[in-house]
Design brief:
heterodimer; A: mainly alpha; B: 246 residues; alpha/beta; Rossmann fold; 2 domains
Chain lengths: 81, 246
């Protein structure tokens, strides 16, 4: 499974890179590049959502497990974000 | 003309990297001493013996922009740390300031444990997103050191001046700090506050110094070759300009 993920990532990267340089010779690459970048942005958006859940769960667990000082980190982090 | 130069450089770089990797597998390179990496190797062993934790801060770089290189260097370090310290009672913890980097840190930690044959000891909470902006991340990461029995902080990635907050928290907790950033302000902050700081491209040498593989050593040689090519191009340009040929 890890190999398949790596192969997909490498091929996607190469296709995007080829899109930058070879579009004058192979116009279809522009469409492929655009689709891949759109997919990457969507995935990054989902990752942000997962990151926010991770952020909340980690700080919640720390607050529940330790004392009053544990509240400082989420408060400071939220204030700065 | 420019559109041809860039792919040619990329292609030549990739071919050279492949060739150099094969060469380095047969004859390993002798690397100059970097005190930060020598100390880090010692600290890794000490933390396992002490039963204390390592904190790897990966910074707030996004993998989707040009700062992603430093984040990848940090992930390479994390993989090494996870493999080396998987036998410890307290697993290393990684913090990231970018959600994609946070997910990758979890994956890297899991891969490190798996490679060390200790996949059962992996806990998903050891890879975490500490904040979503540089200062938010620093505010979240600076509390890991004093509250989670951390003895060594490794800052490797994209850090700005906010690195000073994490360094200050490490100093107050009397923990060791090894730091490197691809940002000039971050480098200056870490140079002044970390016990051992890595300057410039030494950040990208972490894999080679920690024995991550022949490709990492080959990348150092490739950096040297490309650096010499840039120097020669500059000199050639200066000479041609002097002779009024360009």
């Amino acid at each position: 499974m890890r190999v398949i993920a790596t192969v997909i990532a490498v091929l996607s990267g190469l296709a995007v890179l080829a899109g930058y340089f070879l579009t004058p010779f192979i116009p279809a690459l522009a469409a492929v590049q655009s689709q891949l970048l759109t997919a990457a942005m969507t995935l990054a958006g989902v990752a942000v959502l997962a990151g926010v859940f991770n952020l909340v769960s980690v700080h919640t667990e720390k607050c529940a497990a330790t004392g009053r000082t544990a509240f400082t980190a989420p408060c400071l982090s939220s204030a700065c974000s | 003309m420019m559109s041809f130069i860039e792919p040619i450089i990329l292609a030549v770089g990739a071919i050279l990297l492949g060739a150099l990797t094969l060469w380095k597998r047969k004859s390993p390179t002798a690397l100059r001493d970097l005190p930060a990496f020598a100390r880090l190797q010692r600290l890794l062993g000490l933390s396992v013996e002490d039963g204390t934790r390592l904190h790897v801060s990966l910074g707030s770089a996004s993998l989707l922009d040009r700062r992603g290189g430093s984040a990848l260097a940090g992930l390479s370090m994390l993989r090494h740390v996870a493999e080396r310290t998987s036998v410890s009672d307290t697993p290393p913890v990684a913090s990231a300031g970018d959600p994609v980097l946070g997910l990758l840190s979890q994956d890297t930690l899991q891969a490190g444990y798996k490679a060390a044959g200790a996949e059962g000891q992996y806990s998903q909470n050891t890879g975490r997103v500490a904040g979503l902006t540089p200062f938010g991340y620093a505010a979240g990461a600076m509390h890991i050191s004093p509250t989670e029995n951390v003895s060594v902080n490794i800052l490797l990635g994209h850090f700005g001046p906010e690195a000073g907050l994490i360094a200050d928290a490490a100093e107050r907790g009397n923990t060791a700090l090894v730091g490197a950033s691809d940002n000039l302000a971050g480098q200056a902050t870490l140079f002044a506050s970390a016990q051992e700081a890595l300057i410039g491209e030494e950040l990208f040498a972490a894999g080679a110094y920690l024995g991550a593989g022949a490709s990492h050593a080959a990348s150092l040689t490739l950096q040297d070759i490309l650096r010499w090519l840039v120097i020669l191009s500059l000199l050639a340009g200066a000479v041609l300009k002097f002779l009024r040929l360009i």
